[in-house]
Amino acid sequence: MQKRRIGVLISGRGSNLGALIEAARDPGYPAEVVSVVSNRPDAKGLELARSHGIPAHVIDHKTFAGRDPFDQAVDRRLRDDGVEIVACAGFMRIMTDGLIAAWAGRMVNIHPSLLPLYRGLDTHARALADGVRIHGCTVHFVTPELDSGPIIAQAAVPVLTGDTPDRLAARVLTAEHRLYPMALALVATGAARLEGGKVRFKTKEEAGAPLFSPQPR
Ligand code: GRF
After folding, report:
1. Does 171 contact ligand 1 (Cβ within 6 A)?
2. Which residues face 35 on adjacent strands?
3. Is the model's pTM score more than 0.85?
């Protein structure tokens, strides 16, 4: 099997990057991480990538005159590394329409809420403030409007009595680490693809498989 070549964009810790690297160790997994790009030189995920022998690049947004030249540098790097699909994993930069268009249908993101609820930041605190009983995470194709692209997969977790934003975030993060590899595999195999602004699944099973609710912790 020819694995699809994945580039991962990060800004920090890189635990989702770690989950993707781990999943890709399975010879049967349809993708491999071949390039990691961080806009922050101090991102922990860079060391993680290098410890697995994966090229990890810093493209520091502060050293560019604006969004366009920064995004062009990111795009060039991904192409130079032969990347076919881009996975954003805690990448804290707003991307230009140009970069997003260049990777349309081939760029995905993970967001820590059940979209379309809680786009943007502080999702866990906002979910707690609203008193929702179910929260979770979403993997979606990236489109120009922030956290609004067509949804590939979601995982739900319960909100428990006594939860703090940190406790809830940890429960969601555990779900993220299961969901992201699963959703990326759907894209890598073509089982889920972007068509006419919607996600098309090859089979009914593929449409339903990524929705799960892990045991509460
Ligand atoms: C995750 O919660 C992800 O959903 C969000 O940013 C966080 C990144 O965490 N987009 P990590 O860097 O993958 O550990």
Report:
1. no
2. 7
3. yes
